[in-house]
Structures are given as structure tokens and as C-alpha cells.
Amino acid sequence: MLEIKCPYCGKRSQNEFSYGGDGNIKRPALGEEISTKDWDDFVYFRDNPRGKHTELWQHVSGCRQWFKASRDTATHEIFSTCKMNEDFNE
Amino acid sequence: MSNQYRTSNSKGLVNKEKIINFTFNGDSYQGYEGDTLASALIANGIHLVGRSFKYHRPRGFLGAGVEEPNAMVQLHEGDRSEPNIMATEVELVEGLKAKSQNCWPSVKFDIGEINNILNRFFPAGFYYKTFMWPKSFWFKVYEPFIRKAAGMGVAPLSPDPDRYEHNYEHCDVLVVGSGPSGLSSALAAAKNGARVILAEDKAHFGGSLLNDDVTIGNMSGREWASDVISQLKNMPNVVVKNRSQVFGYYDHNMTVMFERVSDHLENSSKYTPRQRLHYIRAGEVIVSTGSIERPISFGNNDRPGIFLASAAREYMKVYETLVGKKPIIFTNNDSAYATALEFIKNDIKPIIVDTRDNSDGQLVKEVQEQGINIRFNSGIANTKGHLKIKSATIGTLDNQKENFISLEEVDCDCICMSGGWTPTVHLSSQAGNKLKFNEDIDAFVPDKKRQKETAVGSANGAFTLDQSLAEGFQVGFELSNKFTSNDIKTDTPISNEPDQKPHEKLWCMPLPNGQKPKRFIDFQNDVAVSDVELALREGFRSIEHVKRYTTLGMAGDQGKTSNLNGLQYVSNIEKKIVPEVGHTTFRPPYTPVTIGTIVGREVGNHYLPTRKSPVHTWHEENNAVFVAAGLWVRPRYYPRGTETMNDAVNREAANVRKNVGICDVTTLGKIDIKGPDAPEFLNRVYTNAWLKLPVGKARYGVMLREDGMVFDDGTTSRLSENHFHMTTTTAQAANVLSHLEYYLQVVWPELDVNVLSTTEQWAGVAVAGPKSRELLSKLFPDVDLSNEGLPFMGLVDTKLGDIPARIYRISFSGELAFEVNVESNYGLHLWKKIMDVGSEFGVQPYGTEALSTLRIEMGHVAGPELDGRNIPYDVGLNGMVSQKKDFIGKRSLSKDAFVSEDRQTIVGLVPVDKKSKIPEGSHIVVDDKAPTPIPKLGHVSSSCWSVEYNNPFSIAILKDGKKQIGKQLIAVSPLKDISIPVEVVSSHYVDPKGERVRS
Ligand SMILES: [Zn+2]
């Protein structure tokens, strides 16, 4: 069980959080003209890197805030977490 | 005669004043308080405990603790019966009942032993090779045979009556194991002010200090251990736990500990758990788990009475029990001489067989000073004795130690063997530590760590007491300094123990000339030297392959006594050094853990929380049959008299169509949405338009996922300019909230909107049916509930007496209907009031079944249609999709496949015979007799008995559905062997123009 530092609440056990997927995805703007391929890339396609990865997590059984985590997908090391409007401090 | 195998001069930890009665295989025995089941049996001269896994060979005890591979027993009876328990780990308790397992009809006469006589037919890979063909034999012949022959203990069939608990702990330093290095690191860390947990698997603290004659400071090792423990117990920053095994090391320094809380107590309080699971998140973990002695492979080295030398010593020194009175000590190192000395102390002169040419270690000299002749350069070739060892064939080795030169048979009643020591690296390995091979001790030790784990003492390959204590005090101090600023260093005391000379690198004896007795490596899985040879001969090279082919080290003991001997043997044959052969990775749990402990209190109704509406007690009192809806418990129907479910549901639904019914809809998800950008946010979340919804009005909304599939639906009302009340389906409430939070926090943080779940704050009652207006007008005489006063999709805030209430004019049943909300605590009051006032209108409660019937008849979609696989078009909601604005998932709707004309769409189905009920999940086909695979046109999502037309009706999702209306197709349910001809009709079966809701 991982130990994750919520940027609002501090360190908590993984079972208080839910995983929110790739944190690098940017939703296309509303009303934006977009090709089917680009849209499909946004909806369906995700990188699956081995190593450092920016992810989203939500502190569902806590403050309910979404935040970013920089985690190693192979070793589970979490290098840093930060609020959505912040950059990693590393 | 009982307890005839007790020591005369060893001073142990049993209390001879307190006699404990127990039974083994139905016979009564006595032991003492402080005994284990193993020590008490041995003290009574019982060595035959069970039969081995594959060959059903008679087996006794090898060890005295967690390393025990043979002595597995079935404990207790009835619903507390427990299989596969190591007798060495069971503390004796009054009335304990134990029996042998894996034998039939008895442990002394076991039919399965024919496997032993036929053992040349049971080599490594036997199962793989033999049971492959013919395929049809698998279920009828092979599998039953293997199950019967290879079974171990028997699991009880009734529920576990005991109570188990989980506990979460945090500490700065967790110390695993209370031997010399563990005690010293715990003491150093604790004195420096760190929060320390010290865990010991056994009942007694001290580890090897209980068995070794050493001094620390001016105390014996045993005294020093109890002194340190009493110091630690008196420190507020320390938790000391015995009977507690740290069995798993997971990510981010999460360790899991298994505590046997009351197994050893004759009477425990009803509220004391049997066992406890501790999740310990430690800042640093000190692995002071010690080491396990290695056996030696020689002919028939598995007979009852053949022990590890350290175990024999522990039985004497801790349990005052003699494993035999005519012992042979067989060793490749000095440590077994301590066992010889303990025998001598009890006036027993052992025969000593040492593979080495010589040793002038202190222990060896002490033994020689007792006038005992040591047979150096010798080994044991074979043993005799069917149910218990009787004699050993001892031989002198040649110069290469590859053959015996001369052999001699010697009587004995036990053999105490020692092949040196293996550090217990399991936890370090689980933590991700890459082990390295230490050639001085011929074993793996922790090397490069991945987590905050530090091995000390013999777990780290430090086999002398000096080293262990020095490492312990040093590491305990250094690691605790990370958490405190005290910087208090504790001095390492002076210690004294006999010096030891190097071991010999020899763990497998040659075969005696002309004989081929089995030389076991893995006792629990019955893997012998010849099996490893066979695997290598057949071309298996990787140690992982050899392991799987022979099953070496794959038993429940995870090869605690066999892994290294196996590796060593492979490396000898392959002429490689051990690290080149490699080693396998250890996995949790280190020792077996009961399922009850892993499950904890999460059993039965405690498995998940139960959510009940405030009206729940009324439902119970009025004969409701309940159904689980996620975590909620909802009334399914309210049978009267002898009514069946169908009777009750039809009555309830018909009463709504005819008079008025009420349904508890408290479970609907409710989300409060506030903020200046709330209308804009709803406009993005829902497929339809929201900017112009007037205050005091509700609107039906559909939300999609980005992939265009319908995610949820519900009505949302505008309470004031910037304040909305959203409802969701019961099932999706939590997911919708997370979804909204995601878009507000991650995607559009610029929107000034707040969302909050208010599901628990409101109780809701749906009042539906043509007489609903009359009923509510009587309950709320001051409110104008006419079509003009409160039109369809309107809402009004009012009061029920002094209680604030809100009335919505919304309908799920398709009838004229209202929904009344009050604060949760008043839900029961509201419900009772409606029932009172409504009696003159024929009001009846209706449950979820009638609720479904009513919505299915009307063609309203719900969970079975909104299953994450349908876009709005498919379920007849295309009219809800705005063409003018963008919203979540809209771009997906213009993809080619999503605009195709012949997409599956929602339709109604009526059986041609107007009688046969169509099972939900049925497939719809043109010809049910066509060759398989029969092309599938769609499936039945919801079925009901139409109370309006008095015949079955279903909703289906059908390919090109609109064009199929009027056609006859067949609904098939192969699992139920049902084929029903059906007519395709509109899904709006009742009141297709929707006039009733607006009446
Ligand atoms: Zn938080």
C-alpha cells in the first residue's frame, strides 16, 4: 500500500485515494475544431511509460481534491505531489 | 509413563508446576505450561507426526520454530478446525486437540505409503508427464486421484466463529526479531527517543540468547534479554509485541504483522480477538530476523527423530525436552557442538560425526575435554528405522569427500544435524533488496536496498555475538537519529561467547556403495537430490525452471531449510558458483497467516457499510422485502397475506396507475451546486441547454462520458440564480460527484462553482398516480398544486407543519406525480403523514419492483439501458442533445460509427403468446435454429409484467431498432433453454404521448 502525500492534507494511505490516470492529458477546448484522430488520441490513447510518470489522484476519502503526483511506475517511488495549479517542486 | 523425555539439568522456560492436558490422534497426553505442541509430544516420546506430501513417508519434527517443514497438524475440531498448522508454532493450551493429516487410515499405517515403495515411478515432473493424456481422464480419474493422494489438512465447512481485528500503526523504527541484534537496536533507538515497535514471533523474547551460553556485560545472555525487554516495556515511546510475526514488507515501508492474541489462552474474553493484523507504516525497518540452520542431505535423512542441531538444543534449553537419549550429532561446523554440550550437561554422551578434517574451536575442545571422541572426516551415509530412527550408517570419507571408504552401523534414537546457518533475508528480499552471496558463510545476505530497511545481526550474515550487538546498537542509534534530535548514543556492552572455526562447504553426502537411498533436500515437498539431478539431466538450467519442475522450495515453508541446499547442489553439478545459479525471490507471507486475520472484521454485514433511509423502520414494520441497491437497502415490494412477489408487484403498480402510491426515493443521489458559473457548468456537463432554466423549475438532464456514452441522468432544479439541486441515479451518485469535481478542479478550474453531496441531507418520497394531487392538497392545504399553480417540472418550497419541505412536480412512473423532500430526520414523519392522509385515496407503498414496472411500461430508461455502451441516440434520448453548444462527450457523437443509421436502438418487445415472460439478458435473433454462431441483433435489457395491458413487456436494445417495429423476432435465453417469439413495438408502451404527467 502506497503512502501518498495529499498537497492539502499530508501523508495518507493509498486506500484514501483513487487513481485518476495520466496527468499530462489536456482536454481540447470547448467548441474547438478537432480531427477525429486527435479527439480519439485524447479519449482513448495513453502512454504507458516505465519510470517517472505524472499522474492524477483524488483524495476521495479525504478532502476530495484532485492533485498531481510524479511517480515511478516500476518502483512506486513518489517523487513529488502538488496541487493542480502548481508545478512539481523537484 | 508420561514426560519421560525431559531434561534433568537444563533450566528452561516451562512451568512444571502447571500440567496441561491435550490429545493427539485421540490419545491423551500431558505437557507443561510453556510447552509447544511439538515439545510436549517429543517429551512424551512421540515423533511420528504425519506423512510426507508426495511419498507419504513417516515424518516427525525437523525444527523448533517457523522453519518446520514436516510437523503439520490439524488443530481443534468442528468450526474451529484448522489445517496445516506447524506443531512447533502452537503453544500448548488445556484441552488442545491435534491430529495428523495427509494419512489414511492412520499415521502408523498409511495406504498412500505405496507411493514410497513405487517411488521410482514418482520422480520430478511425474505429474507433468503422466497426467497429460488422455485428456478425458483428467476430470474422472487423474484429478480425483491427485486430490485424494496429495491433500494435506482439511478446511472446516462452517463459518469461523472467532473474531479477528485489524489495526493501523505508525512508528519511527520497527524492529523485527528480538535476538541480540534486535534487542540492541530497539534499545538504542528507544533510548534516543524514537517511537519504536519491537516484534517477536515467539512467546519469549531473546532469540538465540535463549539457546546459547554467552554473557553480555555481567549477565547471562538470557538475563540480559529479559533486562532489556523490561527496560523497553517501561518506555512510553516503545511498543513490545510477542507472538507477532512481521510477515510482509510492501511498498513505502508498509509492513504487515500477524499477532496471535488469544490462541494460547485457555479462556479468553468474548471480546478479545483471536488474532490481529497490524498494518505498520514504519519510518525505518530494522530486520533482525536471525538465521535458520541448514540440514545436510544423506540417505533417508527424513526419518522421525532427525532434527536440526539447533532445534534439539532449543528443545532442551527452552522446553526442557530431550529429542532422544542416544543422539548422533552430525555437522560440518562448530555450532552443533553447543548441542553436544547440552546433552552432556544432561548426562547423555552423544556420538559426534564431523565432515571436517579437524577443528580447534572452543566448543569442540570443551566436548573433547569431556572425553568424547569425535569422528572427524566422516559422514552419515544412510539410516534405518521405519516409524522412528533406529540406527545410522556412519562412514569415513575419502580425500575428495566424494565417496565413503568404510561404513559402520551405529544405534541411535536421534540425529542432530547442522549444515551451518542461512540468514533469514525474506523481509529484505520482499522489500526489493538485491541480495548478494557471501562466500564466507555460503549464503545470501542483503545488499543494495530499495526501501528504508536495514538488516542487522545474523540476518545480515553477522554470526558472532560481538558483531550482532555492535551492529544493533550502531544501526539503532543511527536510524533513530533521523527522527529525534536527542543524539543519545547507548554503549555496546562487552560480550563473551566461544569462538568458532570455519564450516566445511559440504552439504550432501555421497551415496553408500550399491545403495540408492533418497537424500532429501526439501522435506515439505519431498524433493530429493535425485530429483534435482533428473531436472538438470533433462535440460532444465534456470534455477526458476529447476524449482518449478522439481517443486523445490515451493511448499508452504517457501524453502526455509531447502533453498540454499538446492542451489548449492545445482551449482556443484553445473560447476558454477552459487551466485551464478541465482536465487528465487521471496514473497509474502513469510509464515502462514489465517484467512480470518486477513479478512478481519469485514465479514457478513460488516463487509461493506449498509445505508438505510430514515423510513427504514417503517418498511420493516410493514413487511417489506428488501433488496440491495449498491450500499443502500431498499424495499423491493410489500407482500400482503399470501401474495407472491408477482402478485404484490402487480398490485402495487396497478394501484399507482389507478389511485396513488408512494415510494421511498431517499436513495437518489443529490448534489448541491453553487456559484456564479453554475449554469455554465451544467451547460457543459449535460447534453441539453441549461442557461435559461428559470428559477423554481426542474429540468431532465443527460450527461455523457467523453467517449459519448450515456453516463447518468436525472432532474436538476434551479433554486436561485446561482444555486442548483442536482439528482443522480442511486447507483452513480458517487461517480457523478467525482466526475463533476474532476472537471471543476482539473479541466475548467476557472469556473467558479462548488459542488457538495447532499444525498444524506434529504429524505424523498415520490407520490404518484392520478389521485396524487388530491392527496397532497390535503397534506399541504396552503399550496396551489393545480396544473397552473405547480406545472409539470415545477417546484415549490413550503412547510409541513413547522417543517420546511420542497415539492417537485416530477415523475418517473409516467403518471401525474410529485416528489416531496424534507430534511432527513423528518423523513419518517413525512412518510407516515402521507400514509395517514392518503388512506381515503387508497394510497399504498410501492417498492423498487413496481417502480421498475412503471418506468419500463413507459419506456423510461434506467441502469440496464444506461450501461455505458449506449449513446443518446441508442436509448431514444437524441432529442436531449443540443446542436447549438459543446458539452462533455459531444465530439464523439459525430464519429462515423456513432452517426450510422442502423445503430442499435431502444424498442419494446411483447411476446406473441402474450404470456411468456422474457428473461432479462435474452438475445434477440431472427432464427433460433440457425447454425451457430447465430447472428445476434440485440438484447433484452429490462422486463416486466405490464399492469396496463396485463401481459409481459420488455425493453430491448435492437440493431436498427426503429425499422424493426412491427416485425416478429425470437428472444432466446440459451442458459434457461428458452425461445420466445416476440413482436417488436415502440418502447413507449403506455401513454406514448406523455399526457398523464401533464394532467
Ligand atoms: Zn486531502
Q: Class by helix and strand content of chain A? A: mainly beta
Strand content of chain B: 25-35%
The pLDDT mean of chain A sits at: 95
Largest sheet of chain B: 7 strands, mixed
Through-space gap between termini of chain A:
23 Å
Give the rounded overall mean pLDDT of chain B.
94
* Poorly predicted ranges of chain A: none
Please characterize this protein's 3D structure.
- The complex is a heterodimer of chains A (90) and B (999).
- With 90 residues, chain A is mainly β.
- Chain A is 10% helix and 37% strand.
- Chain A contains 1 helix and 6 strands.
- In chain A, the strands form 2 sheets. A 4-stranded antiparallel β-sheet of chain A has the order 3-4-5-6, with no helix packed on it.
- In chain A, strand 5 and strand 6 form a beta hairpin.
- The longest helix of chain A is centred in the middle third of the chain and has 9 residues.
- The model of chain A has no long low-confidence stretch (mean pLDDT 95).
- Chain B is 23% helix and 28% strand.
- In chain B, strands 8, 9, 12, 13, 14, 15 and 28 form a 7-stranded mixed β-sheet that branches. In chain B, strands 41-42-43-40-34-44 form a 6-stranded mixed β-sheet. Chain B has a 6-stranded antiparallel beta barrel with strand order 45-48-47-46-49-50.
- Chain B has 999 residues and is α+β, with helices and mostly antiparallel strands.
- In chain B, helix 5 packs parallel to helix 11 and helix 7 packs parallel to helix 8.
- The radius of gyration of chain B is 38 Å and the shape is elongated.
- Chain B starts with 14 loop residues before the first strand and ends in a 14-residue tail after the last strand.
- At the A-B interface, helix 1 of A face helix 20 of B.
- Zinc ion (ZN) binds next to loops of chain A.
